[in-house]
Amino acid sequence: MRWKKEYNNGIPLIDTQHQQLFRFSDELQTAISSGLKQATLKELLVNVQQYTVRHFIVEEKIMAECKYPWLDEQLEAHAHFKNRFNEIFDDFNENGLTPPLVNALKNELVDWISNHITGIDQKFGDYYQEYQSQNASSDT
Q: Which domains are assigned to the chain?
């Protein structure tokens, strides 16, 4: 999946982080096409794991600050992704590079991008823009 302008949610830091997650998915596709190696997959797994943890912290902080009413839904989705990703990472550490593991990782990343970033994160972006607009008009 490629990043498109319509995926922006209007929060530059979050948009930049989301674009990086798209790049990770592209890196995985490229690595698969060129003959995925165990070291490459391990590096990608570590990068995605570390990056998503940092991203979720930032995103959840912004959501809490603006009293986002669907924060619990986001927290649950983030926890599910982290847990699922940890399962994939554990599988990799136990069994190494296997076709089911690669498919699971690819499916999780694609699902996350298509259902979360371009789905419920867009809902947050709309809310955040409205929140910012209301706060800007109340400051004047």
A: 13-139 (1.20.120.50)
